[in-house]
Design a protein that fits this description.
Layout: H1 30-54, H2 141-165, E1 174-176, E2 182-185, E3 188-191, E4 199-201, E5 204-206, H3 214-217, H4 221-240, H5 242-253, H6 258-282, H7 291-300, H8 306-309, H9 317-330
Parallel strand pairs: 1-5
Antiparallel strand pairs: 2-3, 4-5
Length: about 350
């Protein structure tokens, strides 16, 4: 499961009911608007007179936060940054004196797009084939923490290399291991249960041991690894701007509307495809992700989806498995473009 962009209500735990809508914005009073406009004209007139009298020639132009640099894909990837510090909004303090204009910031930025996102338009882009060494799975909280910590490093390496090569933002998520019956995130308080095996919210990836159903799955690391890689896929969506663009549509159309639910399914099924990409590029490469581990993950996907949960926001079990397997077999980002797929493939 994943979170909406900042300022919106959080989504529910996986398969749960949606939260209430945020209150509608207040209506503006026409009289107050007219008065404000007239006051603005007076102030502008006075300001122009003062400026002309003083003979000031300086000006400050703020760079638009929506400015997106042209993107290019290089043939080789540079080393990725591995800081675990979460991003924080930049705050500016007010000052009575003018500040000089600043050049637009450089570097990778989010791109708010869906089907035509740069991440999805290169037919040859995919994760590098490489081994991943994760410890065994004796089904204990300490062992699970060691397992997912090692798995995160593999995911950081693969996705960090790819996104850096594509001039898109990258930093690792903050891994959290809640131990209680619920935990608090920036998306609200999340109850831990069989439907909340893992949860992603705003740069934080939560893996509560209580939700992993180890009594049912036991020593099947492929199941846990595919689940974890799915949630990491939401982190990739968040980093590059796909998450924000998807939630913009969901909230515009309504979370429980047909269009809103379809966009939710497209988002979730793409995370499935990203999960399959990772396991497909990692299995049988000399690490601990063997053919047996891969086969377990492959077969498990058919047990998950809206047919099992009774919901409509993740995709049918058949589509849930199909998109995971498509990523595993192709290892191509363009093959994971669920936002360009026909509705019949994301039902």
């Amino acid at each position: 499961m994943s979170q909406p962009p900042p300022g919106h209500w959080p989504p529910p735990p996986q398969w749960g009911p949606y939260p209430p809508r945020p209150p509608a914005p207040r209506k503006k009073h026409t009289g107050a608007i007219v008065a404000g406009v007239l006051a603005g004209v007076v102030v502008l007139t006075v300001t122009l007179v003062v400026a002309l009298t003083a003979g000031s020639s300086g000006s400050s132009t703020a760079a638009s936060s929506n400015t997106i640099p042209s993107l290019s894909i290089t043939s080789s990837a540079s080393s990725s940054s591995r800081t675990s510090t979460s991003r924080r909004p930049t705050s500016s303090s007010s000052s009575p004196v003018s500040t000089p204009s600043r050049p637009a910031s450089t570097g990778p930025r989010k791109v708010l797009a869906l089907a035509d996102h740069p991440l999805l338009t290169n037919p040859d882009a995919g994760l590098a084939n490489a081994p991943c060494a994760v410890p065994g799975w004796p089904s204990s909280p300490a062992a699970a923490q060691a397992f997912f910590t090692a798995a995160e490093q593999c995911l950081n390496d693969r996705w960090g290399e790819l996104l850096t090569a594509m001039d898109l933002p990258f930093h690792p998520p903050q891994l959290e291991f809640p131990t209680g019956a619920s935990f608090t995130s920036e998306c609200g308080t999340i109850d831990v249960g069989v439907t909340t095996a893992a949860y992603y919210c705003k740069d934080h990836l939560y893996v509560p041991y209580r939700g992993l159903q180890t009594d049912q799955y036991g020593n099947k690391p492929g199941v846990y690894l595919a689940l974890f890689a799915h949630e990491y896929g939401h982190h990739v969506q968040e980093l590059v701007g796909l998450m924000d663009a998807a939630w913009d549509v969901i909230y515009r159309e309504g979370q429980d509307s047909p269009a809103g639910l379809e966009m939710s399914r497209r988002k979730e099924l793409q995370a499935q495809c990203f999960s399959g990409m990772f396991l497909g590029s990692t299995a049988n490469r000399g690490g601990s992700v063997t053919q047996q581990v891969f086969d377990t993950a492959w077969n498990d996907q058919e047990t998950r989806g809206d047919n099992t949960s009774g919901s409509r926001d993740h995709g049918t079990n058949a589509h849930y498995a199909a998109w995971w397997r498509k990523g595993a077999q192709s290892d191509r980002l363009a093959q994971c473009n669920t936002f360009a797929a026909p509705s019949s493939e994301v039902s």
